[in-house]
């Protein structure tokens, strides 16, 4: 549901329908709470009041005049903030971790919905002119310095709690001597070979030569921080320490996917990135955006589409690729062109190799078609991450995977020939769209090469803003 403040100024058919349904204008914490509480029972009125204070200051012209890139903050973001607060609180219950600070969850949500996409200089202005004054309103005008100290401390605590990359799970593969002699190559791209008196280990990010004389039975030799090789008689044990999860999301353990998963040393380097703190936060924010949550009536809200929004070159398309490398998910990248239609868009599937396919072939790879299982080129994957790159090039891409993004498991898809395909989903599929700002890349209007994504599309998912290049 879209929450608006200026409905009287809107003349679209949608606004007219809202008027006929008597949807009220929401501009106070009481109004917002009346709408949000029935769905998200763990979001408090005080948290909504703080969010409204932040949104009011962030949309003020005086603040925008001091920023380099003008962020589009509106009152409608209250729904995104409430969704994340609910998710974080459910995670805290699941983990048995309590937070006594009444602002912890709402400030964390503001970080991941608003602050995360700002350039460093703009983020500093946001902290100084938006966040701290909003906290001063709670502390009192004579407590400005205390409010600033509190906010800085809160930011540190949030950063520590979001750094889930310190939790690992070990995956081991036993390789016999004969395989090593022939040369071992795993489905994750790791190669091991004996070269004279040395063992050579090659990954997608590095290579290392280890003298055979240094191996002692049962004692691991580390190729990297999260990859080791151990000799145990005639058997070699390759151990990968895989990330257990990011942010509020724990990766599901699946031996088939684990075999394809990469260590945190390798996964980012596949996309020419390093595991920096900004990348960690954006990966966590992206994974969290599709995390299911439970509504007040017990309904499980299905995973939502994720929108990665930001300037060219900020790493939008690299984030889902790195995530897929770390959890072993099949990664499908769809590159639409302006003159393509939904049925004719091609997809590139990455399962440590590239596979070209059309959309009908992709659907056949993750589902039963007309009641029959189809050969799956990535049969290992129980999780599939689909990225529609530069989704605002063609409007057809907006609706391409709409049924999947809504969590539907049984639907009909029209093939390029116009024949209906009865699709029964067999795998968990996540949908991510990336988009550049239309006004700065291709312009707006009838002849534009970019389009603004409509709010009706945004309402189906969660936005993650990518600011400074990674």
Structure description:
With 470 residues, this protein is α+β, with helices and mostly antiparallel strands. It has three domains: 7-162, no CATH class; 168-243, no CATH class; 268-466, Rossmann fold (3-Layer(aba) Sandwich), CATH 3.40.50. Helices cover 32% and strands 23% of the residues. The protein has helices at 13-21, 29-36, 45-58, 61-64, 77-95, 104-113, 120-139, 144-162, 177-182, 255-258, 277-289, 318-327, 359-366, 402-405, 455-458; strands spanning 168-176, 184-185, 191-195, 198-202, 207-211, 221-224, 227-232, 235-243, 245-246, 249-250, 293-294, 300-301, 305-310, 330-334, 346-350, 354-358, 367-369, 372-373, 383-388, 410-414, 420-425, 428-435, 461-466. It has a seven-stranded mixed sheet, sandwiched between helices. A four-stranded antiparallel sheet has the order 1-8-7-6. A four-stranded antiparallel sheet has the order 2-3-4-5. A hairpin with a 2-residue loop joins strand 9 (245-246) and strand 10 (249-250). Helix 5 (77-95) packs across helix 6 (104-113). It is globular. It starts with 12 loop residues before the first helix and ends with a strand.
């Amino acid at each position: 549901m879209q929450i608006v403040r200026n409905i009287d100024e809107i003349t679209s058919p949608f606004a007219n329908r809202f008027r006929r349904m008597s949807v009220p204008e929401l501009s106070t914490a009481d109004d917002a709470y009346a709408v949000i509480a029935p769905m998200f029972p763990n979001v408090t009125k005080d948290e909504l009041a703080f969010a409204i204070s932040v949104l009011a200051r962030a949309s003020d012209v005086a603040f925008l005049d001091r920023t380099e890139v003008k962020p589009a903050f509106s009152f409608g973001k209250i729904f995104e903030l409430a969704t994340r607060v609910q998710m974080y609180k459910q995670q805290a219950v699941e983990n048995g971790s309590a937070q006594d600070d009444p602002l912890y969850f709402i400030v964390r949500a503001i970080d991941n919905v608003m602050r995360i996409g700002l350039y460093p200089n703009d983020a500093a202005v946001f902290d100084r002119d938006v966040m701290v004054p909003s906290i001063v309103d709670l502390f009192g005008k004579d407590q400005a310095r205390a409010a600033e100290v509190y906010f800085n401390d809160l930011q540190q605590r949030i950063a520590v709690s979001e750094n889930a990359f310190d939790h690992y799970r070990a995956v081991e593969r036993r390789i016999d001597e004969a395989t090593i002699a022939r040369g071992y190559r795993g489905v994750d791209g790791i190669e091991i070979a004996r070269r004279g008196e040395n063992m050579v280990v090659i990954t997608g990010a590095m290579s290392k030569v280890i003298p055979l004389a240094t191996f002692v039975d049962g004692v691991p030799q580390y190729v990297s921080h999260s990859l080791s090789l151990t000799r145990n008689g005639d058997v070699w044990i390759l151990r990968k320490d895989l990330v257990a999860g990011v942010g509020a999301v724990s990766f599901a353990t699946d031996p088939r996917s684990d075999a394809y998963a990469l260590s945190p040393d390798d996964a980012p380097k596949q996309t020419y990135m390093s595991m920096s703190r900004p990348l960690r936060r954006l990966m966590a924010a992206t994974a969290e955006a599709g995390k299911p949550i439970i509504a007040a009536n017990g309904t499980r809200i299905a995973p939502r589409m994720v929108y990665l929004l930001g300037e060219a070159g900020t790493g939008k398309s690299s984030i889902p690729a790195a995530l897929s490398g770390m959890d072993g998910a099949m990664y499908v990248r769809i590159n639409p062109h302006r003159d393509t239609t939904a049925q004719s868009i091609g997809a590139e599937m990455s399962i440590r190799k590239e596979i070209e396919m059309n959309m009908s072939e992709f659907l056949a790879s993750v589902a039963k078609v007309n009641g029959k299982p189809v050969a799956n080129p990535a049969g290992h994957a129980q999780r599939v991450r689909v990225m529609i790159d530069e989704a605002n090039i063609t409007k057809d891409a907006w609706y391409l995977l709409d049924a999947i993004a809504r969590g539907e498991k049984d639907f009909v898809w029209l093939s390029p020939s116009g024949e209906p395909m009865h699709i029964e989903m067999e795998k968990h599929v996540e949908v991510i769209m990336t988009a550049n700002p239309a006004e700065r890349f291709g312009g707006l209007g009838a002849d534009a090469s970019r389009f603004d994504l409509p709010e009706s599309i945004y309402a189906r998912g969660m936005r993650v803003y990518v600011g400074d290049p990674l």
